[in-house]
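Let us work through a complete example step by step.
Step 1: write down the sequence.
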Amino acid sequence: MSGPADIDALRRLTPARLRLAAGAEVSPLGAVLDFQASHAEARDAIRQPVDWAQVTEPLGQTATIRVHSRADDRTIYLRRPDLGRRLRDADAALLPDGPFDIALIVADGLSARAINETAGDLAAALIARLGDLAIAPVVLAGQGRVGIGDDIGARMRAGLVIVLIGERPGLSVTNSVGAYITLAPRVGTPDSARNCVSNIHGNGGLSVVQAADRITWLVRQARRLGQTGVALKDMSDDGAAIE
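Step 2: predict the structure and record it as tokens.
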């Protein structure tokens, strides 16, 4: 498969840039401008702040808590990932002292657009599906990375933590949310102990309903097995039983 017609057929299957030309030719102006626009959109997704009022609107009367990581601003956040994984000391007193079955954290991550568009609806869908469990107030974490959920979850004595976070934007998708599920959260938890549901967005990715169903399956299986990460395989599409 190498002819122009074959390449055009592949392009209709993906938003990714497959190739511009077979030879070392000058790139068409339209392709250059499209690349520059996509690059600018990705940078905006990283730099723009989250509209937390928009995020909390779908949650209705659900209690929320605003906290911040140890990264004081966006520049520090991008340069010091370690600070984004820890809760600011002054905010620790804002957290209730559980225990809870689940702590649900929404962190801005690397895409404010993703959080603005999807995180509130996804959090509300998860709360509805997991309503039989003791869920802590939803924590909204500014300048947060995935690891901040370990810090927050441990402080609230949560048995399991779900972190909804804006994923790193690419040149075709800038509004994708990732969900990270970790049993027995603690500071320093390795990524191998987490499960991730990624590519949650409205541009051909997982829908809110699909993502909420998959995350719910993983949460219930994690509680049943007492494990997350490499020991827990996602078989939700196979209709495997849950507790």
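Step 3: interpret the result. Helices lie at 4-11, 29-47, 52-56, 74-79, 81-84, 112-129, 148-155, 208-225.
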